Amino acid sequence: MGVILYLDTILVPLSLFLTIGYHAFLWHNIKNKPFITTIGIQKLRRKAWLQDMKQGDDKKNMLAVQSLRNTLLGTILSATIAIIIVLAVGALTNNSYNATHLITNYFFGSQSDRILMLKYCSASLFLLASFLCSSVAVGCFVDANFLINATSADDELPSTAHTGRVLERGFSLAVVGNRLLCIAFPLLLWLLGPVPVALSSVALVWGLYELDFACKLAKNIKQGHQ
To answer: Which parts pass through the membrane (predicted)?
Structure first.
């Protein structure tokens, strides 16, 4: 029993610390070195792109609508996946208590009632937060879509600045919602034990690092072409 509690109390907090620490490191780089992160580069490109929209070019306005539509659909998909998983976890909660006596291996960790409740609540909390952020992001994208279409060459600068703030708020919330959904998957694997949580967290951080840092991504693309 001591070994089981040791695995749950050590591996799971370390996994959360790893993922949260990585995102703190990513946020620091986005704020101070945006050119080395894909999120920072996209943010700078959006600012320049929005300034070009002030010229009132109808073709660029149509391109903006099409670009936001793809992001909007992706955000809606993230919110849908999050709420479906929450409902599925809620439906499995009662059934899991009946099967706990079948799981006695150390690999699955502690199966006490409190630990099981902690497993479901932690995963559901991240999933609900992901759903909330994605839902608010959808509203921001809808507002930004309208503001971009209403932008003309005669608009004053505060109007363009407000459009940029709404657009960036939507993208920021969409990224947060997506990352919360990613962090929730290792917590769902906690149902299978603390070891899958640790392994999946390491794999998650490694995969996100490959995508988030532009220098690493550019290097991999260059090697692929050679």
So the answer is: 5-25, 72-92, 125-148, 187-209
